[in-house]
Design a protein that fits this description.
Elements lengths: L4 E4 L6 E6 L3 E6 L5 E5 L4 E3 L4 E2 L6 E2 H12 L6 H4 L2 H11 L10 H16 L20
Antiparallel strand pairs: 1-2, 1-5, 2-3, 3-4, 6-7
């Protein structure tokens, strides 16, 4: 679940929300495990709040990460092996054909793929909330 995974502007990598303080958040780096405070003045984004522009409606990042996981077979994506910008955009077009070619930059695609790899390295493989099965609830009489 990517709701508690954060991106902090100006800081490399992704962070897991550990706790909330009065004026800050306590976050833990996914790559190093080191904890640090993140203050209200930092630009902090939850991955669950990020979406990718498409020609129809914006697609939540979690759903796009699931599509990348399906395309890559659950394995990391070697971004450098993809090659130049046009090859990266072509690869992403096979993952999400309806992405908006004008508003989604190649740097955004590279960042998305690096986040996908970081999440896999941190053993986070579920990117969307499982839908509650309403039929599993039974009324006790």
């Amino acid at each position: 679940m990517i709701k508690t995974i954060l991106s902090i502007a100006g800081k490399p990598g992704l962070y897991r929300l550990v706790n909330r303080g009065r004026n800050n958040l306590i976050v833990e780096s996914l790559s190093t495990g080191k904890r640090m405070p993140a203050f209200s003045t930092d630009k902090i984004s939850s991955l669950a709040d990020i979406a990718i522009y498409t020609t129809d409606e914006d697609k939540p990042l979690g759903e796009v990460l699931e599509l990348v996981k399906e395309k890559a077979g659950g394995q990391p994506v070697d971004v450098k092996a993809l090659g130049d910008d046009s090859a990266v955009r072509e690869y992403f077009g096979t993952v999400l054909p309806e992405f908006d070619h004008d508003r989604v930059y190649t740097s955004d695609i590279r960042k998305l793929l690096s986040w996908y790899n970081a999440l896999l390295a941190a053993d986070i493989t579920e990117f969307v909330e499982p839908k509650a099965d309403e039929t599993s609830e039974t009324a006790a009489e």
